[in-house]
Amino acid sequence: MTMLNRYKFWTLMALFQIVFGLVIFAATRQYYVAESTSIQADPVAVQQPSLQNLNSDTKFSSTGINSATFNQLASNDPVKIEGQANELFSNGQYAEAAHLYEQLLSLDPGQVRTYNNLGITLQYLGKSSEALRNLNAGVAIDPTFQRIWLTLGYVNSQLGDSEQARKALTTAVSLDADSPIGQSAAKMLQELP
Fold first, then answer.
1. How many separate helices (H) and strands (E) can be counted in the chain?
2. Whether the Cβ atoms of residue 38 and residue 112 lie closer than 8 Å to each other
3. Domains of the chain, with CATH numbers?
4. Is the pLDDT of residue 149 over 60?
5. Are the beta carbons of 83 and 77 closer than 8 angstroms?
């Protein structure tokens, strides 16, 4: 290879790396970027609600939390517990996450966001009736919390209860149709039978 060919090769390689990095950044950014007031993946992208309320101070390392680590967690700090629960949820460790969300509710039973997170986690565990019970308890505490209506609509749609799903999703849209949650609810409404 001549010097000019090597220069072209390495220039193209560097350019490729930069473009590739930007494409990967753009593709993964949406997953990690918060809504304007909260966190995780947009439900429109995944067709189902997900946890959206991690704060930057509650994130943990990407190494995750395994069962052994989970058993060693003993804290009464709600911020730490929520961060651990959200990390477990993100890693698909729903039973452990549900346990921590329940612990959070025992510390502060007025947290609607925790009812939402516990509800979607229980749904993923196949415990739909418990999920609905927790979601409805959260709605009773704060009927203006838009995310819980989206989750309630999603759970009802998964159970085949289109009427209840439509009511919940319509409420989510009516709270703020222009927000990402409102847009997700509108999309789910369109997809209902």
1. 10, 0
2. no
3. 33-191 (1.25.40.10)
4. yes
5. no
